[in-house]
Amino acid sequence: MGSPMVTVAQKDSEASPLTLGADVVSRYVWRGLALSSSPAIQPTIAYSFGNITVGTWGSFTFSREESQEVDLFVTYSLNSFSVTLNDYFNPVENSDEKIKYFEWGKDTTGHALELAASWEGTENFPLIVTAGLFFYGNDRDEITGDNEYSTYAEVAYPFDIKGVSLQPFAGLTFAEGYYSDGFGLVNLGVKAEKEIKITGDFSLPISASFITNPDAGDVFLVVGMSF
Known about the structure:
The protein starts with 17 loop residues before the first strand and ends with a strand. The strands form two sheets. It has a twelve-stranded antiparallel β-barrel. The protein contains no helices and 15 strands. It has a single domain (18-226), classed as Porin. A hairpin with a 5-residue loop joins strand 13 and strand 14 (203-213). Residues 6-13 have low confidence and may be disordered. The chain is mostly beta strands and 227 residues long. It has strands at 18-25, 29-30, 33-34, 40-49, 52-61, 69-78, 81-89, 111-120, 128-137, 151-156, 159-161, 164-173, 184-197, 203-213, 218-226.
């Protein structure tokens, strides 16, 4: 489960309040965890009014993998600070056990609710700090069924080099839960982004992310395009 931790900046008054887009990625890796083994398309729809943004985000693989994803989020932004409520849901394909979208029982729901916060620094010090805590739903211990209250925190520092945006990042978890069996550094790497000019009026943003999970001993190289 898991959409990217959403950070919504203050919008220009001339900009449209409606956002519609999609990413295509070579593999879905989230917070250091591989959530697909094949390419995926990740659409998003969001609408902003005042300091509030509501939207939906999903991830669907090109191959018939069992788990796909449909999320909802609500974000409140004030200057450099934002708070987001995420609702993660993973419908299971190709399975006899159907996970019902409107099932919200504590021990049976397929939803996972997370409260996340993000802070973006100044132009001279553009540090980004994010943190998230699962507090209800499908973040349960497989044996006891109790909520694990999995936590994640990340720092990133974006900067530009000759037209290429670079963003090194490091993310960790504090205790046993969804991300690891205990305290650990689970997401360490760098993301590079650049707009490729196709015509005079159209550019295609592409990205490449080198991602490691030191806790699990994993490494990934993910390429993406945005539309």
